[in-house]
Amino acid sequence: MLDFSKNHFELFGLPMSYRVDGDLLAERYHALQHALHPDRYAAAGARERRLSMQASTRVNEAFQTLKEPLARAHYLLSLHTGAWSDEPASTQDTAFLMEQMELREALAQVKDRPDPGTAVGEILDRLADHAHVLTSELEALLEAPSAPDLEAAQERVRKLQFVTKCRVEAENLEAELEGIS
Q1: Do residues 91 and 158 make contact, with C-beta atoms less than 8 angstroms apart?
Q2: Which has the closest alpha carbon to 171: 121, 137, 108?
Q3: N vs C: which end of the chain shows fewer Cβ within 10 Å?
Q4: Residue 137: in which H helix or E strand, if any?
Q5: CB–CB of 135/69 below 8 Å?
Q6: Taking Cα atoms as reference points, which of 177, 179, 163, 180 lies closest to residue 120?
Q7: Of 41, 19, 31, which Cα lies nearest the Cα of 144?
Q8: pLDDT tens-digit profile of 89-102?
């Protein structure tokens, strides 16, 4: 069946790294799901069906965690440090916080702009640039992390949380604007 003691990376036979080959992850996910899917155990006993369902659920959760950069960073930090809080923590980088406030203000005022769709697109581009920089830094920091690297990675994750939340708000606004026009 499935060894439930393995971490997410081990489940997929991947190195424990922030950098993940998305195609390989998807390929191994599909292979595991094919092997473990509850439909394959429909004629089996109750215990095997239950284990199949649990294994399938665990593979799904592991896949979702590893495919998303922010979730993957949280998970890696928890593996390296033994704990990671999902509670929102603020960054101490005041310049970053000011920029995030400016982006949120720009989002709040986007409907008043002559071309709101373009304005949202520009904000999304800025957020994508931020996310790219932060994920590149996380790749370097989590490759073979020392204690200071882990602290720095936690700070990058906090910033990535801000960027991700703002991106979701911008995407929702973009969808709303598309529905209006």
Answers
A1: yes
A2: 121
A3: C
A4: helix 116-141
A5: yes
A6: 177
A7: 19
A8: 678 899 999 999 99
Cα 55 → chain centroid: 22
Non-local (6+) Cβ contacts of 97 within 8 A are 90, 91, 162
Give 40's DSSP letter: G
Q: What is the distance between the alpha carbons of residues 80 and 175, in angstroms, rounded to a whole number?
A: 38
Cα distance between residue 98 and residue 96, in whole Å? 5
- Residue 85 has a pLDDT of 59
Chain centre to alpha carbon of residue 20 = 12
pLDDT at 119 over 90: yes
First to last CA, the chain: 52
The C-alpha atoms of residue 97 and residue 132 are separated, in whole angstroms, by 18
Question: Which tens digit of pLDDT belongs to each residue from 121-147?
Answer: 999 999 999 999 999 999 999 999 999
DSSP code, position 12 = T
State how far the Cα of 44 lies from the Cα of 46, in Å rounded to an integer: 7
Tally Cβ neighbours within 10 Å of residue 175: 10
Would you say 169 and 107 are in contact if contact means Cβ atoms under 8 Å apart? yes
Q: Scanning the structure block, which residue is given the tokens 């709040």?
A: 108
Instruction: Convert the pLDDT of each residue in 18-63 to its tens digit.
Output: 999 999 999 999 999 999 888 888 888 999 889 999 999 999 999 9
